[in-house]
Amino acid sequence: MDPSDTVPVIRVSNLTKRFPPPRKGLAGWRTLIEQIRGVKATVTALEDISFEVRPGEIFGLLGPNGAGKTTFCKILNALVIPTSGRIEVWGHESVREHQRLAQAMITIFGGESDLFGLFSARLSTERNLQFVGDLWGLPRATTQQRLDEALELLDLEDKRDEWYQKLSGGTKQKLFLAIPLILRRPLVVLDEPTIRLDVPTRRKVQEVLKGVLNRQLGTTIVLTTHDLTEAERLCDRIAILNRGRLALVDTPQGLRKRAKRGPRVVFRVRLENGRASTLREAFSRALPELELKPDLESDRARQDGLTGFSVQLPRLQDGEQSPLPRILEALAAGGLAPETFTMEEPTLEDVFVDLLGEQPATD
After folding, report:
1. What pLDDT, in 10s, does the model give residues 120-166?
2. Are 17 and 87 in contact (CB under 8 A)?
3. 27 CB-contact burial (10 Å; exposed 0-12 / middle 13-18 / buried 19+)
4. Which of 181, 182, 202 is nearest to 193 (CA)?
5. H or E segment at 265?
6. What is the pTM of this model?
7. Domains delineated in the chain
8. CA distances from 312 to 50, 123, 287, 309, 346 (A)
């Protein structure tokens, strides 16, 4: 393989994948009868999606369960054959020419508990990783140097001599991520790589993926995740999938600008002598188009005698006046001075809900 900085690493063209539905009836007899009668029901995993992944970027695939993220990764690795369309990696078709691509890419499936049997249960962490280096033809000295670096980066030094079968699920997941750090291939596909990790470990792994694997080593990464915060923290661009269809592709900043709502105002005041009703009345008179809501989360978090409220602002069109001055006037009319007053811009989660709704598709 000869990766180029000018050619897309991955080009997805009108990719569609449909699966037969689960069999119905004993031994599938009802399904068989339906097929004899001409009923050709299918389950659509991907429907006519097209996009490109650029060299050196972290490209995120985001979507609810059943959106088609893992199916895409399996087609990319020739584990599933598409119904129509194609994926090209450096100009080579992912299924028919996968043998040419296999040495230049690595895929880690987060839901796979033993990485397809690659690791031996009764070998140590170090011996298993040495075997991976041998399998990919690395000189043993190179493997050992990179192995030592990877164990240190992933805080796995104390697991070096421990049998693989004794490792916890989260530790195994970190161990899988040592593979791309050792092999250093130009393309890495990570299907929910932090699925079993606790919050501190997840953050550490995210730092390694972005700071070392991507920025330092120049690896192009395709990342699938359910974690909106992870996608926003890591990805240069994000594709949002829903029910197998591509909703849009944009940068995290561009996605936030697509939110239908404006910023949310959160303020905290000290209420005494029934002033809550006074505040609500003043707010209703000054801003009848906006809703004043209690902000229970900030009250629970601080428990300092202050009461939190929030106001969701609309997205302003050109020339429209901000309602912020009227909010402050309503507070003053209620005889209240906010002790804290913040504005929270729309998040990636807001965009996700706007695009897919409150009840996204599930498996």
Report:
1. 889 999 999 999 999 999 999 999 999 999 999 999 999 999 999 99
2. no
3. exposed
4. 202
5. strand 261-269
6. 0.81
7. 10-257 (3.40.50.300), 261-345 (3.30.70.100)
8. 35, 56, 12, 10, 10
